[in-house]
Amino acid sequence: MSKLSSFLSPCLLVLFLFLRRCIADVGTAAFYAPPYIPTVCYGEETGEFPPGNLFAAAGEAIWDGGAACGRFYMVRCLSSASPRACVAGGSVRVKIVDQGSALGSPPSKNGTTMVLSLEAYRRIASLRAASVNIEFMESDL
Ligand SMILES: *[C@@H]1O[C@H](CO)[C@@H](O)[C@H](O)[C@H]1NC(C)=O
């Protein structure tokens, strides 16, 4: 390996890790109510649920063949068809614990990027809105 490439590879890796955390995507979010178990990721196990039930089910866009299980996302409400549905300045960090298309409890809207627990959705939007447009970013911290 040349000196240049042995220098560049770690740099590119750092850049990649940095960008992955710093570039936000846009999508949509709906919500679902209990029962929250069983989940595709953890079965009947609730020990993996974050405090306050701040979790979500992954839509097909981010499910990643199940690799999404356990990932964390920062989610922010951008806008909604329902007027003033977004909580101003609200954001929530959720853990993916389930698959959106396999929920036992029906989501407020089908086919969204994420389906948030009631508790998580309330942090960023009014439950009057069946879905909202979101900005989201993977968050490892
Ligand atoms: C979502 O899809 C299911 C199955 O097709 C359907 O029964 C349900 O009414 C849909 N939910 C909404 C909110 O459209």
Automatic annotation (TrEMBL):
Stored Pfam families: DPBB_1 (PF03330)
DNA repair is among the record's keywords: no
Signal peptide: 1-24
Domain named Expansin-like EG45: residues: 42-141
Keywords assigned by UniProt, alphabetized: Signal
The keyword Signal appears for this protein: yes
Database matches in InterPro entries: Expansin/allergen_DPBB_dom, RlpA-like_DPBB
Domain of life: Eukaryota
Protein name: Expansin-like EG45 domain-containing protein
Organism: Zingiber officinale
